[in-house]
Design brief:
By secondary structure, the protein is of the alpha/beta class. The chain has five helices and seven strands; from the N terminus they run E-E-H-E-H-E-H-E-H-E-E-H. It has one domain: Rossmann fold, CATH 3.40.50.2300. The strands form two sheets. A five-stranded parallel β-sheet has the order 3-2-4-5-6, sandwiched between helices.
């Protein structure tokens, strides 16, 4: 849903739109895979749509278990991961990926403002922890940092 001001936000039905130049022309995003794991259907529908407009290949998963059983675990360049989900939580998935030797940069998203959790997630290796609703610009900056960490192309913002 687009409003007349041109803003989009995530975590709700309304989304906030990033500036068209959020990534410069040197960004090689065509082959970059972003996976979104979130139990919120509105996030799984809206977030991939936005990220595809910036040239990312995106696949959304409704649970950590669904992601783990997919063929994208080894091919994901950046994981956007909800903190609280039924079944395996986001932090539990982070631990499982680490146990398996995975090095996927993770951007956590959460609807719960927990000042104790954020530092724990970052200390465990997450690139960022964003509070829903968040702006598309903030998300793209976090993804850019994740891709720089991964070494996946030129992702200057």
């Amino acid at each position: 849903m687009h409003d007349t001001t041109g803003s989009w936000t995530f975590g709700r039905r309304v989304r906030e739109r990033a500036a068209p130049n959020a990534f410069d022309g040197n960004c090689m995003m065509g082959a970059l895979q972003v996976s979104v794991v979130d139990d919120d259907e509105s996030v799984r529908e809206s977030l991939p749509d936005l990220l595809r407009t910036f040239g990312f290949a995106v696949r959304a998963f409704s649970s950590a278990e669904e992601f783990l059983s997919s063929d994208l675990v080894g091919r994901t360049d950046c994981l956007i991961l909800d903190v609280a989900m039924p079944g395996m939580s986001g932090p539990a998935l982070q631990k499982e990926l680490s146990r398996r030797g995975g090095t996927i940069p993770i951007v956590f998203v959460t609807a719960v403002a927990d000042e104790k959790l954020r530092p724990q997630l970052l200390a465990a290796g997450a690139v960022a922890c964003l509070l829903k609703p968040f702006s598309a610009t903030v998300l793209l900056e976090a993804i850019s940092a994740a891709l720089r960490q991964r070494g996946a192309g030129d992702t200057k913002v």
